[in-house]
Amino acid sequence: MAKRKSEWFDWVKALLIAFGIAFIVRTFFFAPIVVDGPSMMPTLHNGDQMIVNKFIYDIQQPERFDIVVFHASDRKDFIKRVIGLPGEHVAVEDDALYIDDEKVEESFLQERKDNMPSYQTLTGDFRLEELPGEYETIPENHVLVLGDNRNNSTDSRMLGLISMDQIVGKTSLIYWPLDRIQLLHE
Length: 186
Description:
Helix content is 23%, strand content 30%.
């Protein structure tokens, strides 16, 4: 009888440890997220399931074109692409991205741009000064984010700059559905 109690206790202890480790990993390191909506098409599809690396920005700064998850409100997280970094000026003119007046290629948008009629643009013209906050350069601890589906995305053009405190983490792995499994890069 004592042996059965000991086995039962060992199982309970093992389950508690497993749940504790899972809780710590999910809370501090990695978490799943489901893409909701078309704002990152064609890179991400509605319903794609991804893993968010929650600790990456504790050891390094965001880089241009990282795909990040951030708190847009108390109840809603958004997934967008980092376009502008602290200290930079961002503008889009004639569907071309300019960082500090230098043209920057967005290769992830090229196929979409090539398939659009010549009279249509993917990204409407804007300058950083015209966005909420009216900054001349992006302040420290902030980034400018845009969705890849530029004409159907709620991003920094409406929300303003995103503070590092709002960022949950970086995502680059689609793990579901099976036919979409991939590691994303620029």
